[in-house]
Design goal:
It comes from Streptomyces boetiae. Its main location: membrane. It is found in: Cell membrane. It is a multi-pass membrane protein. By secondary structure, the protein is of the alpha+beta class. Among the domains are: 86 residues, no CATH class; 156 residues, Rieske [2Fe-2S] iron-sulphur domain (Rieske Iron-sulfur Protein). Helices cover 38% and strands 15% of the residues. The protein is built from 11 helices and 13 strands. Strands 11-6-5-4-3-13-12 form a 7-stranded antiparallel beta sheet. It has a 4-stranded antiparallel beta sheet with strand order 7-8-9-10, with no helix packed on it. A hairpin with a 3-residue loop joins strand 1 and strand 2. The longest helix has 31 residues. The protein is extended. The protein starts with a helix and ends with a helix. 17% of the residues are buried.
């Protein structure tokens, strides 16, 4: 006990003796008068000012304990992360103020992992700022290039090695080496085949077929011409798509359509009128910019607006682009009425719907 007290008293005395080495925060550092005449002169490095941990071992030990505490807390948080992953049910919902009801597992994993990473970073920063050396040491730069003598020696050695390898004389070796080096990268190209199935022409086709009934995407009932009134917009999809099927979203992303009914004299595009039925026109509702649904319809102007980036299409003129970043009109689907009086498609789109297909190839 007396030995520890003697040690503490010794450290206190040494710290008091070196207290004068600490910078006085009350002293203002004035500008160097030598720099007043030449503002581009090299000011050099300021004198190194020791930190309290540099002269006081007790302060250094406190910093060491702080760093160790942060690292220990990080370890405990990591253990908590593993324990949370194992113990908390994935379906458990808990109320946490002020976040409200949330997944208990996600909250615990995020909290523990965030704490673990933060403590490692905070401990490393505190270690660097209080215990590692902070003295700046200038180092003179030297020319990187070699001397003419060294250059000549290297070139001579290269010529000598090339001659001794007989690379110029052995044409068979040279040619086969070029062939091997040229072909070996092809093995890497073969591995690209394992990235997945080839796209083939899947992007060029949708679920629409000749005779496909056009059904309301809300009621899932087939549509008749009388269901589409002038000035209205109805969102639809082809018959046969199951909303619960695994591939439903990938299929509806290409096949979703909207139907509008215009007065026949308001349709300015002749082909568009021929592809419709009694003023009913069917267009892909997938914006040709980035794929948002362009279904904000203004019945007075017959314009369809995409809410994402305000691409505007004129449905009375073949859905051509009037404004916005979309580069192509909305594809139109040819429709007719079957024997039972229901609207049906006469085939697939003649051009692929969706965003930037032409840029994708």
């Amino acid at each position: 006990m007396s030995s520890n007290s003697h040690t503490d008293e010794t450290e206190t005395a040494e710290g008091a003796e070196r207290e004068h080495l600490l910078p006085d925060s009350r002293q203002a550092h004035g500008a160097d008068p030598a720099l007043a005449d030449d503002p581009f002169a090299d000011p050099g490095l300021e004198p190194h000012e020791p930190r309290r941990q540099d002269i006081d071992e007790r302060a250094a030990r406190r910093s060491e304990r702080t760093v160790a505490f942060l690292f220990t807390l990080s370890m405990l948080a990591t253990v908590g992360f593993i324990a949370s992953y194992v113990a908390i049910d994935i379906d458990r919902i808990v109320y946490i103020w002020p976040f409200g009801h949330t997944s208990g597992l996600n909250f615990a994993l995020g909290l523990t992992l965030g704490l673990a990473l933060f403590c490692i970073g905070a401990g490393a920063i505190h270690w660097a700022r209080t215990l590692m050396s902070d003295e700046e040491v200038p180092e003179e730069r030297h020319a990187v290039e070699a001397t003419p003598e060294v250059k000549a020696h290297v070139l001579e050695e290269f010529r000598k090695g090339a001659a001794e390898s007989q690379f110029g004389r052995r044409k068979l070796i040279r040619r086969t080496m070029y062939g091997a080096l040229g072909l070996v990268p092809l093995s890497g190209l073969v591995l690209l085949r394992d990235l997945g199935p080839l796209p083939e022409d899947k992007l060029r086709h949708t679920a629409w077929r000749e005779g496909s009934l056009i059904i309301n995407d809300t009621t899932l009932q087939p549509l008749r011409p009388e269901d589409i009134t002038v000035g209205s917009l109805t969102q639809a999809m082809p018959e046969g798509l199951d909303p619960h099927a695994e591939d439903f979203h990938s299929e509806i992303a290409k096949a979703a359509v909207m139907l509008v009914r215009l007065e026949p004299e308001d349709i300015r595009d002749e082909r568009s009128a021929e592809w419709g039925h009694e003023g009913i026109l069917c267009f892909s509702k997938i914006c040709t910019h980035i794929g948002c649904p362009a279904t904000l319809y203004e019945q007075q102007t017959h314009h369809a607006l995409c809410p994402c980036h305000q691409s505007t299409f004129d449905l009375a003129d073949g859905a051509r682009v009037l404004f916005g970043p979309a580069g192509h009109p909305l594809p139109q689907l040819r429709i007719t009425v079957n024997e039972d009086g229901y609207l049906q498609a006469l085939g697939d789109f003649e051009e692929p719907p969706g965003p930037s297909f032409w840029e994708r190839g």
